[in-house]
Write a structure and sequence with these properties.
The chain is an alpha+beta fold. The chain has 2 domains: 4-139, Alpha-Beta Barrel (N-terminal domain of MutM-like DNA repair proteins); 157-282, Helicase, Ruva Protein, domain 3, CATH 1.10.8.50. Helix content is 24%, strand content 23%. It contains 7 helices and 11 strands. It has helices at residues 4-18, 39-42, 99-104, 157-164, 171-176, 186-196, 209-228; strands at 23-28, 50-56, 59-64, 68-73, 78-84, 87-90, 106-112, 116-122, 128-133, 271-275, 278-282. It has a 5-stranded antiparallel β-sheet with strand order 1-7-8-5-6. A 4-stranded antiparallel β-sheet has the order 2-3-4-9, covered by helices on one side. The radius of gyration is 20 Å and the shape is elongated. Residues 94-98 and 233-248 have low confidence and may be disordered.
Length: 288
């Protein structure tokens, strides 16, 4: 599933191609996504201009005039194709498959002015698209309980410590909790804990202020670097320019089971365990 850096890259890719264009028509090829597409509702964007695209956690928010907002979650395999002058750009996390199979999984077509088109494609159909009024956008069930953005000033030591009071979960579990901090997923939580030198199974009540500061520091540092590098191409990922994400080349621990630790001072092999049904990688020597 694309995490915050990948969704941020998608947002920037789409914004560079679609802002200020007007929706001329919407073609629903398959409405059976995670939530059935409301055909009458989604067609309300026809004739509206796309003013801006924002990201909240792992969601994309398309703001149109007349206070209409389209909320998109890419799920596991959702992606957008942008077509301009018969040139097709892949703008999202995707599995590398043939052109024919790609076309088979097209779900919705958004036809813009200037003969430009945006296609939502989703193999496993875990993504979804909904429309909301701008006024009550952040009160819907998908957004209202999200924690602060990890790159924001709100994600700080005071907030972190206050949230942990009375809780006794593992540090990996809490970082994966979208109510605590939004946008982090399995890949980047593994990386943050490795570079922070903290074992994923450590209980949060045992975290020192120094360790919490390290988690915050490396969360911001790693996410920022991943965005600059275009995200992580695990299966395959590219921006609208066709550039693939390359952050996976900088993984310290994720996916490196039985490999020698990337810390040049360490000769331990990376271990893999499962926490909350998610693969967890760590170095038993570097992470305490």
């Amino acid at each position: 599933m694309p995490e915050l850096p990948e969704v941020e890259v998608v947002k920037r890719s789409l914004a560079s191609k679609t802002l200020n264009l007007i929706i001329k028509s919407v073609k629903i090829i398959d409405d059976k996504l995670r939530y059935k597409v409301n055909k009458n509702q989604i067609k309300k964007i026809v004739g509206l201009k796309l003013q801006k695209i924002l990201r909240r956690s792992k969601y994309l928010l398309f703001f149109f005039d007349k206070n209409v907002v389209m909320l998109v979650h890419l799920g596991m395999t959702g992606k957008f194709f942008f077509i301009e002058k018969n040139k097709k750009y892949k703008t999202s996390f995707y599995y590398e498959i043939s052109e024919d199979k790609d076309r088979k999984h097209n779900r919705i077509e958004f036809n813009f002015s200037e003969n430009k088109k945006l296609i939502y494609n989703d193999i496993r159909k875990f993504g979804f698209i909904k429309l909301f009024s701008k006024i009550d956008l952040y009160q819907n069930s998908h957004l209202k309980n999200l924690g602060p953005e990890p790159l924001s000033k709100k994600f700080n030591l005071i907030y972190f410590k206050k949230y942990l009071v009375g809780r006794n979960r593992t540090v990996k579990d809490i970082l994966m909790d979208q109510k605590f901090v939004s946008g982090l997923g399995n890949i980047y939580v593994n990386e943050v804990l490795f570079f922070s030198g903290i074992k994923p199974t450590k209980k949060i009540k045992k975290l020192s202020d120094v360790e919490i500061k390290k988690i915050i520091k490396f969360t911001k540092k790693i996410l920022s670097k991943a965005i600059i590098l275009g995200g992580s191409s695990i299966k395959n990922f590219s921006s609208s320019s066709g550039k693939k994400g390359s952050f996976q080349q900088h993984f310290g621990v994720y996916g490196r089971k039985d490999e020698i630790c990337t810390n040049f001072k360490c000769n331990e092999n990376i271990k893999k365990i499962v926490i909350a049904n998610r693969a967890t990688f760590y170095c038993g020597n570097c992470q305490k």
